[in-house]
């Protein structure tokens, strides 16, 4: 009835399914953003294809792409083992309540076990109670001690200035 396949962003049909799901998520109440234009989607494909630590998986339901999970593999400096960060979990509205989110998360947990990862991390909006239910079913929970997710938004000109300064500082060593 359902199956998981790896997303290949060099394949046109996978690109279309990927951006359709991502835009579905962005436009959802839990996404809260502006959908990606075609040019931004092309830029995203290129950037993700150049990230060897990026993987995405589709869940097919009765042959149709119904959802997706995106992940990034990293290293735990304390555990000295790999870890996987789940970045996005998306199930189209008309496919929800069919266990597909569970199937995606379970797949990534099995992948992490097979790759000797020390843990799987994810972030979830505090008002996304349905997603938290799914994650709790797999024994995810707040960290102990409790961590807080912080960010600092950079505008494009600021990023260029800081990158140039960092490269210059490194060359003076």
From TrEMBL:
Transmembrane segments: none annotated. GO terms for molecular function: N-acetyltransferase activity. Keywords: Acyltransferase, Ribonucleoprotein, Ribosomal protein, Transferase. Gene3D superfamilies: 3.40.630.30. InterPro entries: Acyl_CoA_acyltransferase, Diverse_Substrate_AcTransf, GNAT_dom. GO terms for cellular component: ribosome. Residues 9-173 form the N-acetyltransferase domain. This is N-acetyltransferase. It comes from Prolixibacter denitrificans.
């Amino acid at each position: 009835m359902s199956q998981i396949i790896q997303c290949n962003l060099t394949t046109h049909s996978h690109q279309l399914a990927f951006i359709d799901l991502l835009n579905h998520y962005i436009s959802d109440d839990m996404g809260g953003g502006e959908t990606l234009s075609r040019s931004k989607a092309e830029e995203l494909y290129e950037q993700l294809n150049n990230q060897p630590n990026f993987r995405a998986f589709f869940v097919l339901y009765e042959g149709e792409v119904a959802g997706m999970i995106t992940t990034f593999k990293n290293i735990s400096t304390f555990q000295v083992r790999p870890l996987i960060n789940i970045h996005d979990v998306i199930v189209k509205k008309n496919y929800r309540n069919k266990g597909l989110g569970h199937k995606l998360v379970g797949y990534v947990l099995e992948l992490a076990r097979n790759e000797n990862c020390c843990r799987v991390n994810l972030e979830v909006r505090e008002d996304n109670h349905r997603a938290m239910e799914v994650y709790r079913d797999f024994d995810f929970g707040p960290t102990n001690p409790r961590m807080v997710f912080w960010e600092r938004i950079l505008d494009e000109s600021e990023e260029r200035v800081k990158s140039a300064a960092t490269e210059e500082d490194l060359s003076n060593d």
